[in-house]
Specification:
single chain; about 210 residues; mainly alpha; 10 helices; globular
């Protein structure tokens, strides 16, 4: 049961909602416009932020569904381990989608769905960091990287000081691994920021 669930989680994560929406709404290949990424930010930049919001929701849902569904079957592992495993596969599916030659999005929105289900308070704290950085810099990419970096730190602090919280080394490890994955997926954004060429988010003009 676990192996099919892993595969299904990966395939769900791999559904390229941004690519499909841009293709059906505007008839364009999102990989040839804006930052050439298929994620929600580039959807918003290219075809309008109302569509970007839809893609953000759907990409987050891809992460939340496998985690939620894992509670309905016995994998032979601890439930938290199964949740983390399936959620991680969804993130990998989004980042390396099999439907677009294994070139997908940055993984941020799908990770948001995974961790809002697993560690909601930690995720909300990271979302606050994202909006602060984005407001100050105008860069969604920088906000995403620093918000993801903050998550293992928030997790340690919350587990230490929040009554009833229990530390899980697996969750901490996966939060750290997610930071490295998302930072790697933003490597081109980092280069553009250092060169002063990174695209800032723009108001919806559609």
């Amino acid at each position: 049961m676990l192996l099919p669930a892993i595969l299904i989680s990966y395939l769900i994560g791999g559904i390229p909602f941004g690519f499909l929406l841009a293709k059906n709404v505007k008839g364009i290949d999102l990989r040839e416009h804006g930052s050439k990424n298929i994620g929600a930010t580039n959807v918003g930049r290219v075809i309008g932020w109302k569509y970007g919001a839809v893609v953000l929701f759907l990409d987050a849902l891809k992460g939340a569904l496998p985690v939620f569904a894992s509670t309905f079957f016995d994998s032979g592992l601890a439930q938290s381990t199964t949740q983390i495993l399936l959620g991680s596969m969804a993130i990998l599916g989004h980042t390396y989608t099999p439907f677009l030659s294994f070139k997908g999005g940055k993984g941020v929105a799908t990770a948001l769905g995974v961790y809002m289900t697993l560690v909601p308070f930690v995720t909300l704290c990271a979302v606050v960091i994202f909006f602060i950085v984005y407001k100050l810099s105008g860069f969604v990419s920088l906000g995403s990287i620093l918000a993801t970096l903050s998550m293992p730190l928030w997790y340690l602090g919350i587990v230490k000081y929040l009554p009833g919280s229990e530390y899980s080394p697996v969750i901490f490890f996966v939060l750290v691994a997610t930071f490295f994955l998302i930072t790697f997926s933003h490597r081109d954004n980092i280069k553009r920021m250092l060169q002063g060429r990174e695209l800032k988010a723009v108001p919806d003009a559609n």
